[in-house]
Structures are given as structure tokens and as C-alpha cells.
Amino acid sequence: MDLGLTGQTAFVSASSRGIGLAVAKALAQEGAKVAICGRDKKRLEEAHRQVVAQGGQCFSVQVDLEDDDGPFTFCSRASEALGEPHILVINTGYPRPCYFEETTAHDFEKASRTLLFPVQGVLRFCVPAMKKRGYGRVVAIVSIAAKAPIPSIVLSNAIRPGVLGLMKSLATELAPFGITVNSVCPGYHRTERLYSLAVERAKASGKDPEDVLKEMAIEVPMGRLGLPEELAKFVTFLCSPVCSYLTGAVIQVDGGLYHGLI
């Protein structure tokens, strides 16, 4: 199926590794012009190379999205290089794994700056351009923790539902302008983030992190961890003109890990 993404411009935040990079590569494979960003120069250069290798045009911006002007810097430079976005995929960093008694008020403030503020920042830049065009696709990469809290990541558990609330609100506000807004909640996918979580669990239990990952895979009804590329294919569909009547959705891609009805 041709998803109709050839020539469209896509901004993918926090995209120098993991799920963000997988999404950028998948969009490039479909012919989109992709802007990526990250803090680490060497990691970003490698990500740029990988995206270009998919056959697409890529523009990379070294920036920290947690800085006050970080989202604007990324989006403005990307717009100058590739044109205003048809697609915005919002990925973020992540706060440190911890339990509540290990946190301070500053930790919650910092977690908001990691998980929530960059979302607002890139939206503030991209939404006006999409409204003017009368078309847009916005997808937020959130976490299954926003629907079912995960032990030892209390900061994510607390802040990520706020992203879902923001996205749901925008879906209603922007629908009349031809803009769809959806959220994707990954489960256990093989990323550096998941490994860091396994390390924390291993410290608490005295186990090897790889053994913890195997235990996590057992929790998944499909019996394995997901791959970033699997999630990226679904996100790419949500970003396409083909996905024209879905907005305001919160969809988990988790191998059946989430057991709730809503």
C-alpha cells in the first residue's frame, strides 16, 4: 500500500536513537523529508546517516528540547531547511527510574520539563502551519505507563497522563482544520530506556539485567519484547493521508501487555 507520504515533511523530536530514530527511518522509507534532533552530536550524526540510508532526505538539529528555546530552535531550523511540517511525531526523553520516596519536588519539575514542556513547545510551532495548510498529522509517543503505572518509574507514571490529556484536547480543537492528533503507548520494546529499567530492577533483586528482560517478556501475552521498528510502522500509518478518520485515539502497541478495557 502506498501511504502517500512522498514529499511530505515530517518533524520527529528526540530521534537520535530508539523509537524516535525507528520512526524517522520508517517515514524516510515512505519518501518523506524528515527532520530529526538530539543532544549528542556523534549519536545524531549516526542517526542522520541511517535515515539518509533509507532513501529519504534528512535534516538534523543538535538541540536540547528541555531548554526553553529548544523546541523552537528545532522546528524553526527544520522549517527553513525542509519546509513547514505536514507531520509532527512527538517523542521525548525520560526521567530517571525511581520510587516515590526517592523523589523531591524538583524531580517532578524536571520530569515535566522532560516529558511535557517539549510537547507543548513543538506543538506551538507546528500547529499554526498545519492549520494554515488545512492538513496535518500529529502523533505523540507516550508510554503504556500512562494507562497502567509501572513499578519504579513513578515520575513517568505521574507526568505522562498529562500528555494524553493535552493530545485529546487538541484532537477536538484541531479536527475542523483537517488535523488528526493521536497518541501511541508503547509497551516493552527493546530500547535503551527498557534496559535502564531492567538494570534498576536487577539492582533491587540481585539479578542480571538480561534475566530481568526475559521476565518482562514473559509478562507479555505474545511472549516477547517488541522491536522499535514494529512500533514505527504503525506510527507511520497514523502519519499518512490513508489514516484520515482516526483522531483523539490512545492506542497501545504492547503485544497484549495492557489488560484494561479502556
Which range does the strand content fall in?
A: 5-15%
Mean pLDDT: 96
Q: Main β-sheet: number of strands, strand sense, barrel status?
A: 7 strands, parallel
Derived structural class: alpha/beta
Question: What is the 3D shape?
Answer: globular
**In CATH's first tier, which class of the largest domain applies?**
Alpha Beta
Query: In order across it, which strands form the biggest sheet?
Result: 3-2-1-4-5-6-7
Order of helices and strands: EHEHEHEHHEHEHHHE
What's the count of strands? 7
* CATH homologous superfamily (4th level) name of the largest domain: NAD(P)-binding Rossmann-like Domain
CATH fold field value of the largest domain: Rossmann fold
- Helix fraction, binned, reads 40-55%
CATH architecture of the largest domain: 3-Layer(aba) Sandwich
Q: If you compute it from the alpha carbons, what radius of gyration comes out, rounded to the nearest whole angstrom?
A: 18 Å
- The separation of the N and C termini measures 30 Å
- Distinct helical segment count: 9
- Whole-number count of domains: 2
**Unreliable parts:** none
Q: Can you give a write-up of this model?
A:
The chain is globular and about 55 Å long. It is an alpha/beta fold. The protein has helices at 18-29, 41-53, 70-82, 105-115, 117-133, 154-174, 192-205, 209-219, 228-238; strands spanning 9-12, 33-38, 58-62, 87-90, 136-141, 179-186, 250-253. It contains nine helices and seven strands, in the order βαβαβαβααβαβαααβ. The chain folds into two domains: 9-187 and 227-253, NAD(P)-binding Rossmann-like Domain (Rossmann fold, 3-Layer(aba) Sandwich), CATH 3.40.50; 189-225, no CATH class.
